[in-house]
Batch of 3 targets.
Target 1
Amino acid sequence: MPTSLLRVGVVFGGASGEHDVSIRSATTVIRGLSDPIHQERFKVIPIYIDREGRWWPESVAQQVLDQGRALAAEELPEPLPAPGLRQIPVDANSIDVWYPVLHGPNGEDGTVQGLFTLMQQPFVGSGVLGSAVGMDKLAMKAAFAAAGIPQVPYLGLNASELQDPELLERLLNRLENDLGYPCFVKPANLGSSVGISKVRNRDELLEGLHQAARLDPRVVVEQGVNARELECAVLGRSTLKSSVVGEVRFDSDWYDYETKYTEGLSHTLIPAPLPASVTQHIQAMAIRACRAVHAYGQARVDVFYNEEEGHIWLNEINTLPGFTSQSMYPTLWEASGIGLPQLVAELVESARE
């Protein structure tokens, strides 16, 4: 085996509600890095983080990848260490580039990025700031507002406000007056549509607020708009480039977790049927969004487009987008002329810039 192989530590799983999605994403990333065209370029070292935050070496990680699912506690080597990161299960000097494939809290939010930064080792994707701001929907929206990027009307709140009956009544009145129905209630720090509710009346609003508050101490409520859902991928570090624009279409009421990750419940149009001027506007908006939160490496930017009125609103940025077979990020780049093996290689190279 050539000694010049670049050793890539692919970290996946994680102590978040998106653990299963991470396993599927890692499978795709590793397939790209292991493509025959890279046989003399990369050596992949998978590292698994279980649901309790314990880090496991390649032998356990490979078992998870082979089975395509999380391992139960009794399937993990014993004795089980205490939850959380106690030690990195590889010699850090044996990794040239870290490739986190983690979704949600404890992986996409700047925590792992901070660890790699302290280790002074290169890693794929945004740094601490871009990851943290891109993960927290309220911080993200504040950054977009400061950059003058249009968004749908929204309000943020703390979960503690739901405990005081008087505060809660005022909050419900304000949400109804300022946003109306339907609206969307979201935990501030979860992705993949986890914990999101579309609500149409006060009872549903109250239920949605409590559901989101159980998952996150910060909650965002957004006005519902009649719009097409469009996505654009961004790639690069010192220089950012944007992909073609894609559209997600679905028959369900909205793009929830089940619709997002179940074969056949949604389909994509890539490139999206749009006037050239709208496509160019969205591509430029995607790069503006990355710069507003200091995101780089990889990002997927989601926008709403109301073609009747010509409105384009930035929805959100995802600094560690999914890489599953249904995921838009690799699919958008495939349609832009960058296939999976080239895409993951460019991401690894961006980490070394």
Note: The chain has a mean pLDDT of 92.
Target 2
Amino acid sequence: MRKFAIIAVALALGTVSSVAFADGGNFFVNANAGASHYSVSNPYSGLDNSFSKTGKAGALRVGYRWNSVVDYGVEAGYGFLGNATARVNYDGGGTERDQVQTRGWLLGGNLNYNITENWYVGARAGWFRARSLYEFRYMSDNFNESGRDRIVRTGEYFGVGGGYNFNKNFSLGLAYDTYRAPVSDTSSNRIGMYSLQAEYRF
């Protein structure tokens, strides 16, 4: 993950430094805060249990965007996609709790179109270096057991959004992003994030 982060930052900054001042544009900082939704099923379906596949989520991106009919740019950042949890109480008195939590580095590009001077729509896509942490814990009166497993793999992300430009430096809007977090060569978690999006340009 550290190697990916170094490469992501180097590519983004390298691209910016080579052409940033050749065309008009802006550096930007973009932050999202909202809720995630995991495309996972209840592992204890049919039993008396609690299950949640939504959680608090957010992302922070920095980058550079060039001005054109449709503005285009590069971005790098980090996303925290919350968690999904399941808990079941067994008839024998034991309790089991399972959780998956995903976060990771982002590297990609974005497009932004100003419908009017104030209203905009945008889209982004790129690579997501996902770090998924799986944890379980079983507790009873005479036996306790716990364990965890971490999987780090590269997937992709896509997002769309729109909002309002208060001035040339600041905008606020709504966004939806979907992330793919691979858990093996043949399977993955698809995680959606609904969020409030704020951006500052300088």
Note: The chain is about 10% helix and 70% strand.
Target 3
Amino acid sequence: MTTPTLHSPAATPVANASQRAHTARTLPVFVLSALLATGQMYIPIPLFTAMQADWHVGTGVTTWIISAFAFGYAGGFVAFGPLSDRFGHRRVLMTGMLAAAVVTLLTGLALSAPMAVGLRIVQGLVIGSIPPAIMAYIGTRIDPRHRAVVTMSVATSFLAATVLAQIASQAVVAAFPWRTMFLGSAVAFAALAFALRAVMRDDAPTGADQPLRHSYAAIPAVLRIRPLLPMLIAGALAMSVMVGIYTGIEITGLVHGSGELLTLRAGALPVMLALPLLAIPLARLSKPGQMVLGVLVAAVAMVAATFEGSHIGVLTVLLAALVGGLGVISPAVLQTAGELGGDARAAASSVAMFSFYVGATVGPIVASSAAPHGFSVLAWTLAVLLVLALGLTLLGARLQRAAQPA
């Protein structure tokens, strides 16, 4: 028995050598786009205090600013990802970036918390069109020799946005009104839309003449790939931990002062920058093997944090290790989904990213429930989620081995 792959009549064919993108020109723009898109989830975390003062609301309301975006973001993957295969990755990506500029501007002008929550859902929805188009473009237009490094670089950018967006937001709110962060992001979306137009190759002919239902037919089929399902859930749990730990630290008041907060957030940056360099040595492991390694590192770091959370220096190192482990997981899940998805790469990537940000939606909710009881309770709760993710990863690996030819 072999592992099934999907074939979509509306899928974009893999480009031949003459149609491939220029890696050196494309990669920086993709990295910036990934950072900006996913960073929109995290920029409100350092803004919580200013938002609460402006709108006269409590922490419970402002944490929904994060979950609302994550909910819309996850929905955007499923709604727009398959359309990338149908109408072309470049066209969908350009449209998504320009729409994101408009909605992000409106979000920054929101007059109340309920209005902001509604706009954040819409913002997440339109920005959710961006990552699947990028990942599908990489899978079809980037030279196969460069594909692993480019995939790891972009996937790491999605992860690095967790920290970089918070650092940028913390710096801005220290000197300007909190709305400045959203207004600046809107300008950046518009600028990057034109940069993408310049570096991306024209879309290849697609199956746009096919009925629309063909674009979405691959999604339920992806969910029927048995080895993939446990890995998707494990990826969701990992993302829940990533969002939950940073949200929880903000709620618990564990760290005092902007300097300590900046140190804690920036401590993971060296690890994130190193992750793309690990793409080649990690390729020696199977994708499930990479996931097991990542979850183990993250789980050990999280358990250790339950004992050492009061020491900021130690916690900074442990969070860096946690981020490093989680940073190995998401590229492995994305590549596994793309490989098992066959021709319907964007649909498979959409399902994988949907699972990640369903987890991200849960992260702030877990944090707001556990953090009021202290950092130790928060850390143990997240550690349990990682142990569960480890079990699911091992299950997925076993199912994948069983599906290989004898």
Note: Residues 135 and 349 are 7 Å apart (CA to CA).
